[in-house]
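Why does this matter for the project? Reviewers at the last site visit asked to see concrete outputs rather than summary tables. In response, this paragraph embeds two records directly. Each consists of the residue sequence and, immediately after it, the corresponding structure tokens. Nothing has been edited or filtered.
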Amino acid sequence: MALSDNACDSLPSSVHEEEELDLPIGYRFCPEDDELLTHYLANKLLGRQLSANIIRDIDLYEYDPDQLPIDQFKYGKGSEAYYFTNTRQNRTTKNGYWKATGEDEEVFDADGAEIVGFKKIFNFYWGLEPNGEKSEWIMKEYTLHPSIIPADALSDSITKKIERFVVCRIQNKEDGGDGNSAIKF
């Protein structure tokens, strides 16, 4: 498949409509970390069609977490949703900021043999840095390792996309983290 040089170059600031999927009863979207990277993010960066448009494109930092349409993400746990977005060094929103909880963690393929990317965990704080109040919102940000892109597809354009484009898992832990309770706003 030919690469699209303009794939993911700009993300819309508004949330796209989610296509309605005809899925079997009991289906839940709960990919492993390596699957988010190798199937969803890698294919998105390469301009390939995804099997289902479950993960929305969004400018994540234009919204406070309680403004995100997590309740509309009906294919996974009730307290979490997934988004593609551009990453920023300054992860601030209108009323708060996302603060990293530690170092990047390596994410390995299913066999544990190859690094496919990295995961960084953030907590959301209401208010201004560094005096914000910690909230129940957690974000896991996944970045792709360039080694999983086929050598013939790894252009400067794709490398730049890898450096700035991520997939995020946002979760409200207020429900105890099990995803069985409704999100409380």
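We now turn to the second protein, recorded in exactly the same manner.
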Amino acid sequence: MSLVAIGVVSRRSGKPLYMRSFVESSDLLFGQYGQNDTTVGADLWGDILVEESLNPKSEWSCEEKYQFMLHAASDRLDEILAEGKWKKPGNAGADACWVGLLCSMGSFNAFGYVTTNASYVTIVEDVIAPDNAQLQKSRDVELKTLLSYVHRAYTESLLNPFSDINAKITSDRFAKSVNRLVTGFNQL
């Protein structure tokens, strides 16, 4: 099980504040084949390519397929939160914020974590056999811990008096912290 993408969504405005993928993809459907900004030449069939951008620069360092998955999972999280039945009575700390599995998309699972100021959605590539419930439960605990640390990093980034709570997270410290946490999670 490896974390492939993470998103942070504002609870107040519903806007994405941070999206990032942590893997390189080689599939042609969502890949970057023939999508350079300045390439002029011929394609595979000899047609002349004009100097236009076929792929506008994304404002997020997240591949499009993972952006799609994060948005779909975020919509599912909103549905779960609207029902109001996700929280178990008596939970405290990270357990009180953990929503758990939101949805499955092929070999990927989306998990949610909710706090008062932000929702966190992760996309995890699941390679754990369904009959291995003990390993799945331990990885869920590790993911819950990771998301609590990501929330701590987000809260620390908000302590900057010049940061806007509804603006895109641009803090290098936050990005480095998330990268370090995800790298550690994926090495387990």
